[in-house]
Specification:
Order of helices and strands: HHHHHHHHH
Radius of gyration: 17 Å
Number of strands: 0
Distance between the termini: 31 Å
Structural class: mainly alpha
Mean pLDDT: 83
Helix content: over 70%
Strand content: under 5%
Number of domains: 1
Shape: globular
Length: 198
């Protein structure tokens, strides 16, 4: 990968990582409801899961989706249904970290979610098709993409979680916390519009 392509991809990855999407909206809600430290497994799960999926896509998953487009469609509908379920869970969460039964998303749940995250899958397919140039240098280019996504995804997820913890300082009453959770749920549903309109 030449230097201009490297700069171009870094900008692409940064925009993809820092802009609102299902992961970042859920991290904001988690930071607000559970705090920064309890949300760290969620952060690390997203980073690990996303980079692992990018690695898999680079070595054949993107090709599999292009050969069997129905598989991508099935995953898209599963992800939409799951995100609606998550939006409902966020909207109806009443006491966040004060509820002994309430728990943040685990590392494995966050990592597995990347397989059906519509924004993540779209970004990965776009990245591998646009920035992997050919078979002769494919492995090296894929590892470069994974490394760049790692160094932009980790700070992005940490930033959104911190944003949630800052917001939590303004959510002193149950009424405000409930309104915040409903807003996060609505934003999560809105983030599904591109997947729904395809």
């Amino acid at each position: 990968m030449d230097f201009p392509s490297l700069i171009s991809f870094t900008l692409f990855a940064s925009v993809a990582a820092f802009t609102p999407g299902p992961n970042n909206i859920m991290l904001t809600a988690s930071g607000a409801n559970f705090g920064f430290r309890r949300s760290l497994p969620h952060v690390l799960g997203i980073t690990f899961g996303f980079c692992s999926l990018l690695l898999a896509a680079g070595f054949g998953l993107a090709g599999l989706f292009s050969m069997v487009p129905e598989l991508y469609e099935v995953m898209r509908y599963l992800s939409i249904a799951y995100l609606f379920f998550l939006a409902w869970k966020i909207a109806t969460a009443e006491r966040g970290c004060r509820d002994a039964k309430a728990k943040p998303i685990t590392f494995l749940q966050a990592a597995a979610f990347q397989i059906i995250n519509p924004k993540g899958v779209s970004v990965i397919i776009s990245a591998t098709t646009a920035y992997v140039s050919g078979v002769d240098r494919m492995a090296a280019e894929i590892f470069v993409l994974v490394f760049i996504f790692f160094i932009v995804t980790l700070p992005a997820t940490l930033a959104w979680t911190l944003f949630g913890t800052v917001i939590a300082t303004f959510l002193k009453t149950e009424r405000f916390r409930r309104a915040f959770n409903i807003l996060m749920a609505l934003l999560l549903v809105i983030s599904l519009l591109p997947a729904l309109l395809k």
